[in-house]
Amino acid sequence: MSKEKLWTKNFTIVSLINFLVVLVYFLLIVTIGGYAVEQFHASTSVAGLVSSIFIIGSLVGRLLTGRMIEGTGSKKTLVIGLILVILASGFYFVTLNLPLLLMNRLFHGVAVGVASTATGTIIAQSVPKSRRGEGIGFFSLSAVLATAIGPFVGMLFTRYTDFQMIFMFNLLLAAICLAISFAVKPPVISIPKKESKQAEKGFKLSNYLEYKAVPISFVALVVGFGYSGVLSFLSFYAKEIHLVDAAGFFFLVYSIMLLLSRPFSGRLMDAKGANIVIYPSLIVFAIGMVLFSQSYIGVILLVSAALIGLGYGNFVSVAQTIAIQVSPTHRFGLATSTFYILYDLGLGAGPYLLGYLIPITGYRGLFLYMAGVILAALVLYYFLHGRIEKELRGNRAGALQEN
Fold first, then answer.
1. pLDDT at 166
2. Are residues 29 and 170 in the same domain?
3. What CATH number does residue 128 fall under?
4. Calpha distance 87→58 (Å, rounded)
5. Contact in structure between 333 and 74 (CB atoms under 8 Å)
6. CA-to-CA dists, residue 11 to 6, 128, 129, angstroms
């Protein structure tokens, strides 16, 4: 029996769109703060707000998108999201003061939240059920590559050109995304009449969140919280421990390990279930965090990067797959937005809350405590999903045979 095709035109185009949208996001993350300081003489704290307010907008966008997909369809939602991305990219040219820049960063976050949730939903709808873990694993690599390439491109632009060229480059990429999005043809997903009528009856939280996806999404929130300190405080930690040069390769090693392992972890999940990937991933992530907290030489720091990439990176893609698998097909959009809302909340709130602990614990102590948080997430996973994974997997296998 031959495998169902994974790399279809839909899959390739949507992955490319996701890559470009996320690339622009991370390109601006490393440059927009400097723009605020240089152009508007913003303080360091305000420059940080200019950078991070994007995440709040993204959460709002994701919250709205699940309902939008059910009402208008995933392709129309993607097109709307990309039009908003183009508008936000263009507005950077006319942000004449800090308040306007902050408003546009918030708006840009909403736009990216809509577009990226739509891409994730189209992929979930399009990949074969028997290869869903592998498919979502490959798709999520588009974001992983963007997180590595985006900051690199951003630093090149700031070194060799000006901010107007950065904004022009972003606008060009947004236009390319919109142009190729019209070639996407997601499958038609029918909504049961009963649920369609219920959705029309006023405000209901279930119209914005998929309850079945909440348990695994909550685990992702805790794991994302544990990782957020690495993302936000690596440069400060590296200066303190005198490993700035090695830290420059941290995310490169992280990305390489993900590129090498993600295809295998997706196939393993499809063949053996989520538990065989999730439990080892969280254990490896915790070990990587312990090494990270105790890094005294560059080699140890980079080994910790490899372990964190192997553990944390594979957990995220498998957890997203679980959120989709436990949800009805017609609510994949809500499942995707639910997962990212909680996951982004952990990543976004983490640096703010952990910042209060650093004066007490120091960076080493903080990252060591985060290893404990990750192990706590492992226990949480068992109670919220792991113990019933075998039963759910049996039900999915039965459904596949019937089809």
1. 92
2. yes
3. 1.20.1250.20
4. 15
5. yes
6. 7, 11, 14
Residue 237 sits at φ, ψ, to 5 deg, of -65, -40
R_g of the chain computed on alpha carbons: 21
Q: Which residue has the tokens 């063949």?
A: 271
Separation CA 54–CA 75 (nearest Å): 24
Mean pLDDT split into 10-residue runs, the chain, 403 residues: 76 94 86 85 77 84 83 90 96 93 94 93 86 82 80 79 91 97 83 52 71 95 91 83 88 86 85 93 97 95 94 90 88 86 85 84 94 97 91 62 50
Are 14 and 119 a contacting pair, CB within 8 Å?
yes
User: Do residue 95 and residue 162 come from a single domain?
Assistant: yes
What confidence score (pLDDT) does residue 349 get? 80
Final residue of a structural domain among 163, 189, 215? 189
* Residues present in the chain in total: 403
Distance CA 244, CA 268 (A): 36
CA–CA gap between residue 397 and residue 403 (Å, rounded) = 10
If asked whether residues 400 and 322 sit together in one domain, one would say: yes
For residues 35 and 95, give the distance between their C-alpha atoms in angstroms, rounded to a whole number. Answer: 11
Distance of CA 220 to the CA centre of its chain: 11
* Dihedral sign from CA coordinates of 153, 156, 162, 165: negative
- The separation between CA 311 and the C-alpha centre of its own chain, rounded to angstroms, equals 15
Residue carrying the six token digits 């070990």? 287
| 242 shares its domain with 356 | yes
Angstrom distance (rounded) from CA 76 to CA 391: 36
Distance CA 54, CA 76 (A): 23
| 8 Å CB contact between 360 and 348 | no
Domain hosting residue 68, numbered range: 1-189
Tokens representing 147 are: 């997180």
Output 237-245 pairs: Cβ under 8 A, ≥24 positions apart.
237/363, 237/367, 238/301, 240/363, 241/295, 241/296, 241/363, 243/295, 243/297, 243/298, 243/301, 245/298
Distance CA 346, CA 326 (A): 21
Phi-psi region of 261 (alpha: psi -120 to 50; beta: other; left: phi over 0): alpha
- pTM score over 0.85: no
The whole-angstrom separation of Cα 65 and Cα 68 is 5
pLDDT for 1 equals 43
> Which of 171, 34, 158 is closest to 111 using CA atoms?
171
In degrees, to the nearest 5, what angle opens at C-alpha 333 toward C-alphas 330 and 335? 95
